[in-house]
Amino acid sequence: MLIGTELTINPETFPGEYRVVGETYVRSQTDGKDHRMQLTLNRVAISPTTNIELKADGGPSTFSMDISVLKPKNNQDMVMLR
């Protein structure tokens, strides 16, 4: 199931400016419990050094994404964690 927008990377569209939304867990220092959070970076530039490795056998893969957080337009927050 696709959640969000499909991103096609090709010479006409990359590099560019994007909005990055991710899911994570944050551990509370008061009760030690993990709480699900959503991280939103409203405007970022993705570096050409980004590395995405896809494996045909379905095994785990890793990627590195070098990004620069840019000042958003329209008075949006740069980074939101909620």
What is shown here, in short?
This protein has 82 residues and is mainly beta. Helix content is 0%, strand content 41%.
Please characterize this protein's 3D structure.
This protein has no helices and six strands. The strands form two sheets. Strands 1, 2, 5 and 6 form a four-stranded antiparallel beta sheet that branches. A two-stranded antiparallel sheet has the order 3-4. The relative contact order is 0.24. The chain is an all-beta fold and 82 residues long.
Tally of individual helices: 0
Shape: flat
Percent of residues in helices comes to under 10%
Note the gap between the termini: 23 Å
Strand fraction: 35-45%
Mean pLDDT rating = 82
Low-confidence stretches: none
Q: What structural category arises from helix and sheet content?
A: mainly beta
Q: Main β-sheet, in a few words? A: 4 strands, antiparallel
Oligomeric status: single chain
Count of β-strands: 6
Listing every helix as H and every strand as E from the N terminus to the C terminus, the arrangement reads EEEEEE
